[in-house]
Amino acid sequence: MISFRTYFNLHVRKVRIIVKSKSPLMKIIAGILWLSNKLGITNIQDFMGNYATTIHDRIYWPSSDPYMDDSPRLFHELTHVLEWHYRGVKYDLEYIFSRSKRTYYETVCVQTNMLINPKLQSQAYVASCTNQFANYGIPKSMVRKELNNRLIEAVEKRPQAESSLVAAAYRDWKMNS
Known about the structure:
Elements: H1 4-11, E1 16-19, H2 24-38, H3 47-50, E2 53-55, E3 58-61, H4 72-87, H5 89-97, H6 99-116, H7 123-132, H8 140-155, H9 161-176
Parallel strand pairs: 1-3
Antiparallel strand pairs: 2-3
Helix pairs in contact: 1-9, 4-5, 4-6, 4-9, 5-6, 6-8, 6-9, 7-8
């Protein structure tokens, strides 16, 4: 049986997972976020240990989190890979400079987990996710509105393309493994 990541690489898009603590780029970004936290722009604590970070087709995995092949975090990050794949540099710029686009992109990743685990298609899950995005400098009202949109789309079976593709790949992998 092949891993889900291998299946994804073969059938959807090639992705590399890199241990975050071994990346000079991630150490630089950690320094920038430290300054951003001090200036009150973000409130991201322990960027190197608690957050996976995706840049293009590379997922920088936190060293404190053992890699799990079918974890919600992996599904989330694979969705970001596809968001970048479909939009390229536009995605990078929008994610960094547009709070509303960053909110949209993050909520599409949450929708992926709703599709893979339908029990998460609930207001309780929306509420728990709303709180975690406050650290990204996104107002809760904006997050809640977008998460509710993604919930409605998931329930009505009209999800965003990236969510749908990751979830379909996961279902295919499960059926064939």
